Amino acid sequence: MGHKDEPGGPTGELHPAAALDVSTDDDMARAMLLPRFDAMRHAHNASPHVDWPTRKRHLKALQAMLHKYREPFAKAIDADFSGRSMQETDMLELFPSLGNLKHALSHTRRWMRGSQGWANLWLLPARQAVVPQPLGVVGVIVPWNYPLFLAVGPLTDALAAGNRVMIKVSEVTPRFAEVFASAVAETFAPEWVTVVTGDAQVARAFSTLPFDHLLFTGATSIGHHVMRAASEHLTPVTLELGGKSPAIIGPGARWEHAVERIMLGKLLNAGQTCVAPDYVLVPREKLDSFVATARRVAARMYPDAVNNPQYTSIVSARHFERLTGLAGEAAAQGATSHALFDAAPQASRRRLPPVVLTGVHDGMRVMREEIFGPLLPVVPYDDLEAAIAYVNERPRPLALYVFDTDNTRIDRVVNGTISGGVTINDTLLHVAEHSLPFGGVGPSGMGGYHGEAGFRTFSKEKPIFRQARWNGAGLLNPPYGKVFAAMIRQLIR
């Protein structure tokens, strides 16, 4: 751990100013945020080059913070959700966060080297290089569903790239926000990392700051506003949005395995996951079998889901009402609701047992909106080409899952569709792989991060051309004569 007076070093002392609690109107919120932003920008301008020892110190400090605050983070998230097990927080948030940190510690020094070599034939003996440089001050807007992982992931990548970072945490998880802000303030000097708390007005004001890069994770509808606000300063954005991620069970899939992995991907965090399977495409003759198998595997994973402490609650009363409304509207419009457990939903505890929906159609909100909960529509198809066409007729999803044992069919689905990412014969795991970029496409997002992709997202890859003392560039100077004519003929032939 660094000391307070170390240039660029994290500190073990408490810095109350590293956490800003801003709750006011948009203009006042921005006025309160700007001094902190300006201080971070000034610190960057005073020392724009960040060496490897400093970056390593930051990453190690973040790693130590996660270990130290493991239980406080999990308890705060459990309280915010009114029920989320420490096991799930460890597996879905802490484990991938630490994995990404270890990956960055192992590879950042190499990423920092960039590339260099000789210039092209006609410019020899000049040299060229690409040098990654920190952008400056990076903004990160964090959602409520994975408040730790979706804060620490971008923070890791931005610190590895040598940046200073402002993080706006969600007001929907206030207990976590308080603990996280305190932990960051204890770990980092405020000119390096600042956590901002507050309501949606604060988030709007935050998105108007002239960041060198802004990463937003959340709903597509909010992504429009974030991008519009960022455009005022031509701030580049990475948008991690959502959408309706399909799971396609091919005719050659290992049936029990496919249904189990789809249900696990759907039921972790009670489906409150941006890359959770949002609907399933199954061979028409397998529709009834899917419902029966889903009921069996759900009971095996989460017996007595309503009272099972390992099954996560819905985060808020508003979200609970939205989900029960989606299911009710679908049933009223002709869908068949297959409850996977006998217990009824419990609004007082925000416990919503999983439900499979069949007989759905595009007129239902459940088939137009991202569900973000334990409701799973199942759509039958007659042949694989029809399933591919079904996906392609809809907005491009953040994730796609395909299950089959035939590589030709798998390749047909992967190559015939466009999505942010793909996991084959499983769900969610492309997000956990540190060497793969994570991001959407079209309405599910733009840009990506994680690992080297994140390092590059938060770096300016500066091209450098170094002219040699002895070179032939002067031969192309005016006035143009026979030598020029001969050379240009060679250059353009």
CATH architecture of the largest domain: 3-Layer(aba) Sandwich
Instruction: Write out the CATH superfamily name of the largest domain.
Output: Aldehyde Dehydrogenase, Chain A, domain 1
Overall geometry: globular
Number of strands: 17
User: What is the rounded Rg?
Assistant: 26 Å
Helix content: 40-55%
Question: How do the strands line up in the largest sheet?
Answer: 1-6-5-4-7-8-16
Q: Ranges with pLDDT <50 over ≥5 residues?
A: 1-17
Q: What's the level 1 CATH class of the largest domain?
A: Alpha Beta
- Our estimate of the beta-strand percent is 15-25%
Offer a concise description of the structure.
The chain has helices at 26-46, 52-68, 70-81, 86-112, 149-160, 174-187, 200-207, 220-231, 255-267, 287-301, 317-332, 384-392, 407-416, 429-432, 451-457, 482-492, and strands at residues 19-21, 115-118, 127-134, 137-141, 164-168, 193-197, 213-217, 237-240, 246-249, 279-283, 336-339, 355-358, 375-381, 399-403, 421-424, 445-446, 459-466. The protein is an alpha/beta fold.
